[in-house]
Amino acid sequence: MTTTISPSPTTSPSSGQAARSATVLHSLALEIVGATKRFRPNRRRAPIVAVDAVDLVVPRGGVVGILGANGSGKSTLIRLIAGLLTLDAGRIRVFGHDVERDGLVVRRHLNRVSVDAAFFKKLSPLENLRFAARLYGLDPRVADERAARILERLGLDRRRLDRPMEQLSRGMQQKVAVARALLTSPTLLLLDEPTTGLDPRSKRDVQAFVAELRRTHDTTVLLTTHDLDEAAELCDRLAILDRGRIVVDAPPAEVARLAADRFGGPATLENAFLAFTGRDLEVDLDDEPADEAEDDR
Hints:
By secondary structure, this protein is of the alpha/beta class. The chain contains nine helices and eleven strands. The radius of gyration is 19 Å and the shape is globular.
């Protein structure tokens, strides 16, 4: 049975936020009810339930983290929210809009960063960002200025902006992926392990920018991560996902306390994860099909 601590009420919008549409001002940025997704790798195997009757709400302006071992269904859940996969059961709403019925409206409000973001490797960061900007109908000059400003804030030197993506390090490429997502000023940002594999400095740059974005733009963030320190620092609430089900949903300190009270051990997130799932973060459960390719283009 899922352990849940209700999120605190959202604060009233500021004068700058009042200019947004009524859609964006919907009190819940994300509402997931009974979301279920199954995969059938082949005819000889029974369907794999990657996401199993998940319920989750994220208030506008909140930052909620999803923790889970490899293959626990985190990325599948993100793809369902983004409209890249269809639900087998349940519903998902973004600012009150159904992700399947109102897909075009939903896509205007969200963007996604994945651990394996795809690019046009022969093109430069700016050229990749200009392409993304055209897809969203942004003015090229405005897009160039915004892209350069975001990349610089993320710690990517302007002198590198004209180099092909294939010449940039993994950390630099991931910063470009974050910049691409932020270029459209999303009101809901889906971060699927955005700092995995980054060096400590690049990781800090991305984490600091996410925290700043939340403070200055009231952006709602759903974050999947293996980094418990990152989760504790950035997130208002943590939902631990185990075999496609949410087994606890509460503020970070409360998750740690609940595990210590119920199962014993120290009141830490590491102990909580082990206690609620019985497994290590790096265990590969093979709950998601291996041929499910990542494509952000």
